[in-house]
Structure formats: C-alpha cells, structure tokens
Amino acid sequence: MLVTRCVQNLTAYTPGEQPKAKDVVKLNTNENPYPPSPKCAEALTSFDLDRLRRYPDPEFTELRKSIAKMVRAKAENIFIGNGSDEVLALCAKAFVENDEAIGSLDPSYSLYKTLAAIRDVEWRGFGDLGEVEGAAAAKLALFLLTNPNAPTGVLKPRAEVAAFAKRFKGVVVVDEAYADFARENCMALATGEKNRNVIVMRTFSKSFSLAGLRVGYCVGPKALIDALYKVKDSYNVDAIAQATALAAVKDAKWMRGNVKKVVATRKRFVAELKKRGWDVMPSEANFVFARPAHAKAADVFERLRGRHIYVRYFSGPKTADRLRVTIGTDEQMAKLLAALDEFDK
Ligand code: PMP
C-alpha cells in the first residue's frame, strides 16, 4: 500500500461549505459579516513587492511583539500559526507521545478528533470537565478545550478552567477562537508567572474578520512555546499575512466595534428565535446553537439551503437536533427569520 493504514482509515475533517454564488446568505462557518480594518487594506496596497522575493520572517518578530502588547504577555510567550488550525496540529505533534491520547469535550470542534487520527493516537470525548479523571484521563497528554465552546456557544468560567488545568497533568489548550465575543476569557491563565501547562489560542479569522488570511496565535509558558517553534515549518506565516495581521492588531479598536455589532445582533436574534419557540443555548460566541420548535433540524437546514441561506448542521447523537447559525448582519438575520416564518405557514 502506498498510503499508510492510518491515512487510509482516516475520516477527513469536513469544513463548512463555501458556496460560489454571490447572492447567498452565508451563516455556516462563523465568519464575521463586517470587513476587516481599513488599515489592512492600506497594508496590502502599500506592501513592497520586493518583500515577496525573500522569505518571510520565520520568527514573525514585529507581529509577535504587537500581539504580545495586545494580550499583555512577553513576546517569548507567543507563537503564531497559519491559522489556529495549524497551531492545533503542531500541539498534537509536540505534546503527545505515540501511546498517549488527546481529549476534548464532546461536542466541541470536530477537527480535534481528526488531528488525533492523523497522529494515529486515541481521542477521548467528555461530556464535561468533571469526567476527566481516573482511568479515563490517565493517557491524556493534551486536552483541547474550546471556550466558548463550539458548536454550543456556551462559556466556561475562567475559575473552572483554572481548576481543571491545575489537576490535569498534561497540556491544556484553551481554544479561544470566539473569546472576543464573550464576557470573559482565560488569557490570564496563560500569562501567569506560575503557569506550567496552559496555552490560550486565538485567531484572526473571527473577531478580526480575516478568515481568508490564515493567521492564528497562542500564548503560553516559554518551554511549550519553544517546542512549537521547533516543530513548525520554517516559514509557516507568509509575509503578506504577517503585514496584514500586524495592521489589524494595531487597529484592534476596529475589531472591537465589529464585535459590539455582532453581539447586539446576537441578542436580538436569540430573542426572535425564542419568540418562535426555538430552544437556544446561551451563546457567548458569534453563532447560536438552536433547536427548531416544530421541525427537524436537518429538514430546516435543507429548506434554508434551497433558498441559498446556509447554516450548519452536524449529524451525530449530541448535535443532530439543532442548527448552528452564525451571527451575520441584521439584514441577513432578518432574511433567515423571514424564511423560517414562511416554512411555518
Ligand atoms: N478553533 C475553533 C473552535 C474553530 O471553530 C475554528 C474555526 N473553524 C478554529 C479553531 C480554526 O480557526 P482558524 O484556523 O481559521 O484560525
């Protein structure tokens, strides 16, 4: 066989659909409906083409410094990846022996399971952090904790995450892809002097409206960050991405303005769904996970798709009765609600 057994048996991660048509209402992959900072456009138009002749800075010095300032950490505690998905893959590479396992909540970001399969190590899913103990936890070297969780949107308080990290012997990566939309976050756990095993990971894909750029980063103890540098590709973040992300960080105020709009729309949209009898989980992210009042989630998904309104449906025992709907503009949410009202007629 030319392909390894592990890869032959692999069920690849299925990303959300990226429809080609222009007139779609795209609420399926948690992108930001608002544009990135105009400073990003400036960075792109003034980008010196000669910089593309050379390799990019392998240590992302400038971007690292400005992220460090933003999150109040030292530059030596920051690692940057080609999207946070790359950071996750590198964590699976650097922190897990071949006979160890990777854990996460179930449901949470389904890529985690695939990352374990790619590494050919066991993956274990847990209903809650309290279950991560004894024999079930014995082999776990890495715990990937989405917070706020996806697809539920539910936030775990920092104190609970801190207590978990304290008793967990391996590395805890708190995947804060959606933390800018939440009330609180765990960054203080990653930057604390005594921290030994907590990494907090963020992305430019959601709050910064830069999913197409592919930049994510993480913050953690120097020993763990150094390990990630050892296993990364030399030039994992390209020069254009570094320059554009830098412009975005320097104008973080713009991002916070967009976050405010999304959070306000989320509140209004949740109220509208509840009015229609939907069960909505309390979301602290830029999406909601909700159960239709009268119809099957899978049917609603298909009917919406027929109208070029894309939301996300996850089959599977813990997720199949709900839809995950990204918070878009008020206009997009109104279109979705109008379609739902027509289905109910
Ligand atoms: N973590 C979570 C929980 C996500 O939902 C996503 C986006 N699918 C990512 C990480 C990856 O984001 P990116 O690679 O765009 O930084």
Overview of the molecule:
The protein is of the alpha/beta class. The protein is 39% helix and 15% strand. The chain is built from 13 helices and 12 strands. The protein has helices at 5-8, 38-45, 61-71, 84-95, 111-119, 134-138, 158-167, 187-191, 222-231, 239-250, 252-275, 297-306, 330-344, and strands at 25-26, 78-81, 101-105, 122-126, 140-146, 171-175, 198-203, 216-219, 279-280, 287-291, 309-310, 323-326. The strands form 3 sheets. The chain has a 7-stranded mixed β-sheet, sandwiched between helices. A 3-stranded antiparallel β-sheet has the order 9-10-12. A two-stranded parallel ribbon has the order 1-11. Helix 5 links the parallel strand 3 and strand 4. Helix 3 runs parallel beside helix 10 (239-250). The longest helix is centred in the C-terminal third of the chain and has 24 residues, at 252-275. The radius of gyration is 20 Å and the shape is globular. The mean pLDDT is 97. Bound molecules: 4'-deoxy-4'-aminopyridoxal-5'-phosphate. 4'-deoxy-4'-aminopyridoxal-5'-phosphate binds at residues 83-85, 109, 146, 150, 175, 177, 203, 205, 211, 216.
